[in-house]
Amino acid sequence: MSAKGLLGDTPDRDYSRKLSLFNAHARPELRAAMAGLQLKSGMRVVDVGCGTGEALTWLREALGPDGTLVGLDLAAAHVRAARAHLPAQILIAQADALRPPLPAASFDLVWCVNTLNHVRDPVRGIERLAGLLRSSGRLALGQSSLLPEMFFAWDARLERIVNEAVRQYYRNRYGASEREFGAVRALVGVLRQARLKNVRSRTLMIERVSPLSADDESYLTEAIFKNTWGERLRPYMSAQDYDELSKLCDPQDPAFALRRPDFHYLQSFTLVVGEL
Questions:
Q1: What is the pLDDT of residues 63-78, one digit of tens each?
Q2: Domain 16-275: homologous superfamily in CATH
Q3: Is 131 exposed, middle or buried (0-12, 13-18, 19+ CB in 10 A)?
C-alpha cells in the first residue's frame, strides 16, 4: 500500500475488532477456500494483509511443523493483535504491502484477502507480491462482497437504498469514486494484467438464515449494523427510511432483523489464484 491507502489506511488505522468478527463469521467459507489450494507440509507461505491473524492459524494447520509462515500488515494494532495469539514461530511484521521486507522468489504461496480494495494501483500491487514467489508459486487473491449483501431478502427497495447510502458515504469520506474500486470486481483481469498464468476463480456464498449463531449475530450487529451503517448513513437517507433501518438494526426493537424468522443473508467470497 502507498503511504495512505485508497480507504485512508495508515499504520495507525485499527480495524482489529471488525476483522476478528468477520473471520469468526466467515470461518467455514474462508477455510473451504483455503482447503481448495491443497497446501502441503513444508511449504513457505506469506499472508499479506494478515489482519488479526486468524488465517495464519488455519494456514499453520495445513503447512505442519516443517512449513514457513509469515504475516504482514500495515496497521500496528493488527500486528499486535496477531502476535498476541500466534506462536513465536510465525513471523508477524508491520510492513507496507508494496514494500514487503522479504527476499524475492522465496515463497510458494502469497495469500492476500480483502486487501486489494485498499491499494491505489492494484496491478502494481500484485506485481510486487508476485515478486515474492518462487518459480511456479501461486498468488491467492480473495475478496468478499463482489455481490451486494442481501440483508433484506424481504425488502429489495430498502436494500437498494442502504447500499447506495453506503456508497455515498464512502465517496464523501474518502473522495473515491466507485470506478477506483473496480479492481475488486475484476480480480481475474488484475492477475492477468500482472502477467500471472493459469488464472482461475472460485466463489463461495456465505449464506445464513435464522436462527443465527452467536458469531454471525455479533458480526452483523456490530460490524455491519452499527459500524458500517448506523448513524453515519442518516444524512444519505430519508427520515422515514432511516427510521425503518434503525429499527431493523436495533436488538431491543421488536423489528430487529436478525430475530426475524424470514431473515436470509448472502455474501460472496471470491478467491482468484494465479501462478508465476
A1: 998 999 999 999 999 9
A2: Vaccinia Virus protein VP39 (3.40.50.150)
A3: middle
